[in-house]
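This section describes the prediction task in plain terms. A model, or a person checking by hand, is given the sequence of a single protein chain and must write out its three-dimensional structure as a string of tokens. No templates, partner chains or ligands are provided. The sample shown here is typical of the held-out split.
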Amino acid sequence: MKKIILYSIVLILVLSLTACVAGPNPMKDKADEDGKIAGFWRGMWHGFIAPVTFIISIFSSKVTFYEVHNNGAWYNFGFVLAAGLFLSGGILGRKKDKKKKC
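The expected answer:
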């Protein structure tokens, strides 16, 4: 009986986690209404302002957190790099003092 419960819990957990997997972006490499496709530098800017944009996007349907009209990997790289730099973590990590205590 315990094995059945354990298997059921694992199955539910696996199914729940697979629902969170990111899907394809059908707007990738397609220009927005202004004819622009976001690249590395715009990804950097969006990553840098991500904390503020996220808060605004909660209260406004006109502001989005992530530009879907992007060129793919370079936009994503710029976004993650800038977000990591701004939040002083992620890619660079936080440096800790290694002073010896006497």
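For orientation: DSSP finds four helices and no strands in the chain.
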